[in-house]
Here is the input.
Amino acid sequence: MLTLFFVADLPTKVGSAYEFAGDDAGHAIRVLRTQIGESLALSNGLGAWSVVEVIAIAKKSMTVRVTSSGFEEALPVEFTVAQALTKGDRIKEAIELNTAGGADVILLWAAARSIGKATPDLMQKLAMTAREASKQTRRNRIPFVMGVLDDKKIAAEIANYDLAIVLHESAVDKLSQVVSTGVKKVLVIIGPEGGLTDEELALFASAGAKVAHMGRPIFRSAHAGMAALSGLNAALKIW
Here is the structure.
């Protein structure tokens, strides 16, 4: 499996040369010990990709030649995760896991029981977290991280989806019971570590969201999105 890197000015013409520079190039040279003749994968993060062969290496950059290129179409179902803010590094972990699980959009929201707070610096770091997690999981499409929304704005988003699911341990229905085939846009709402309030649960349900649980284990907030996306990918036959 080729190591993936993201570049804004992706070269796509087969046979063309390209100077791969910046921090990622430095990482490939110093840490990965990339050698002349080896191949790498480059992507613009929006679906386009190119496989390149290293033809020259400098101290902080390398020259590569495009050997093939293409475009990765989006999957038939678009997944959005509304992730409540969590404390400390848990929110970074949530971004990593939701990215690995296949989220296309991650909406951060300030729940009533959220402890963590979003700052401009944090939002920038979380966008970078999604980018790095996409590299690690070989995704040619980087999920969009957006926020911070309140519960009313999250509720207003529900009408834009074919299926919206609120995960809650008190739900009667299982996740598998609320999933229907043919949906194209799915929203999963994840509460904070302290749980959703009754008011938040009622607000989302009244806006049209289905309330469901994921069996007996109670997942941490940072882990619930990955678990839900796994179940949805299997139920909708994407996996």
